[in-house]
C-alpha cells in the first residue's frame, strides 16, 4: 500500500484487510466485520435509521449495506477499492 500518514496507524489486521480488498483476483472471503473495523480506523462509519452505513474516508462518502452473509460481495470490493484509492490508499 502507499505510505500515507493514515496507513501508518493501522494494525496488522487492518493492513491485511486492506491488502485483501486490493488483491487480484478479487477475494471472495473478506468479512464484513473486518471491513467495518478497517473503515472505522481510516474514517468514520455511522449506522443510519434505514439500516445503511454512512462511511466517510477523507473526502469520500458512501452508503454501504450489511451483506446477508458474513463476507462482502465483489461489487462492494470494487466500490471500496475506488473509495480507498480516492482517499489516498492504493496498492504500492
What is the H/E string? HHEEEH
Shape: globular
Q: How many DSSP-defined strands?
A: 3
Number of helices: 3
- Biggest sheet features: 3 strands, antiparallel
Order of neighbouring strands in the sheet with most strands: 1-2-3
- Helix-and-strand structural type: alpha+beta
From the N-terminal CA to the C-terminal CA, the straight-line distance is 5 Å
Mean pLDDT, nearest integer? 90
How would you characterize this protein structure?
- This protein has one domain (7-86).
- 38% of the residues lie in helices and 15% in strands.
- It has 92 residues and is α+β, with helices and mostly antiparallel strands.
- The chain is globular and about 35 Å long.
SSE layout:
Elements: H1 12-22, H2 32-42, E1 44-47, E2 53-57, E3 60-64, H3 74-86
Antiparallel strand pairs: 1-2, 2-3
Helix pairs in contact: 1-2
Brief account:
38% of the residues lie in helices and 15% in strands. With 92 residues, the protein is α+β, with helices and mostly antiparallel strands.
